[in-house]
Automatic annotation (TrEMBL):
Entry similarity comment: Belongs to the 4-toluene sulfonate uptake permease (TSUP) (TC 2.A.102) family.
Name of the protein in question: Probable membrane transporter protein
Gene source species: Streptomyces shaanxiensis
PANTHER family for the chain: MEMBRANE TRANSPORTER PROTEIN YDHB-RELATED, TRANSMEMBRANE PROTEIN YFCA
Annotated TM spans: 49-70, 82-99, 105-122, 148-172, 178-198, 210-232
Lineage of the organism: Bacteria, Bacillati, Actinomycetota, Actinomycetes, Kitasatosporales
């Protein structure tokens, strides 16, 4: 079956989707949050709701590659504190998708991303940076983890836009580059796999979407390899600036689209 004809995709549109898939691989092994650009490309080429179902398996492929690359650097105490709140956010996001139209979803997520980017910049200018991500053991740290967890679960369910949310949390918690990438790799692999039944139940993942995924997933691999090569050449300050910039761009494109 011709996947491009099935989705009425032109050659240029397929090339755009292939580039977006490559960018997913890059974001998973280098600059987390950069895949908000992929989200925008998929939503521009495909129907908005359907695009989230097509993108999810591609994100999972990128997550697998990221886990294989950074599995030794994950901070599991942070992950265990996040997962219950994220589960609540995913359920809330599923209910929200049943009710909300595309415009409401885009506006809500865009506003959340910009707000958290602003809060993160403000916190990093007014507080000393911690060397270890141990703030989750304090009461304030637990509240912050739960708040970001719910928002992360919600945004990843409704638009696959949880990357910037969790990027802001991990940066604010003081994670260094490799710990950031290792922790986010396991986080998104587990969360994205758990989203599959919800997305299938909403009709966002079906036979046609999986056919398109099969044609695009191969492009994730070179993106991940480029990201692995690049991350060792990006210093910590530039890394953080790129993550925040990607979050701002993602929020703006959701608000203005």
């Amino acid at each position: 079956m011709d996947t491009m004809n099935l989705w009425h995709i032109t050659g240029w549109e397929f090339a755009a989707l292939a580039f977006a898939a490559l960018l997913v691989g890059f974001s998973k092994t280098a600059v987390s949050g950069a895949n908000t650009v992929s989200l925008a490309i998929f939503a521009a080429v495909l129907p908005a709701r359907a695009s989230t179902g097509v993108l999810l398996p591609i994100l999972i492929a990128g997550d697998v590659l990221a886990v294989l690359t950074y599995r030794r650097h994950a901070h599991w105490p942070t992950l265990w504190r996040l997962f219950p709140a994220v589960a609540a956010g995913v359920v809330f996001g599923t209910l929200f998708l049943v009710w909300a139209d595309d415009g409401i979803v885009r506006t809500s997520i865009g506003a959340i991303l910009l707000l958290m980017a602003a809060v993160t910049v403000w916190r990093r200018r007014t507080a000393e940076k911690e060397d270890e991500p141990d703030s989750v053991t304090t009461r304030a740290g637990r509240v912050k983890a739960r708040s970001y967890g719910v928002l992360g679960g919600f945004t990843t369910m409704v638009a696959n836009a949880g990357g910037p949310v969790m990027s802001m949390y991990l940066l604010s918690a003081g994670f260094r580059k490799l710990g950031f990438l290792g922790t986010s790799a396991f986080f998104f692999l587990i969360v994205n796999v758990s989203k599959v039944p919800f997305s299938a139940g909403l009709g966002l993942i079906d036979g046609p979407s999986l056919l398109l995924d099969a044609a695009l997933v191969i492009f994730v691999v070179p993106g991940a390899l480029i990201g692995k090569w690049a991350v060792g050449r990006i210093n910590q300050r530039l890394f953080e600036q790129l993550v925040i910039a990607a979050t701002v761009v993602g929020g703006l494109q959701l608000l203005l689209r």
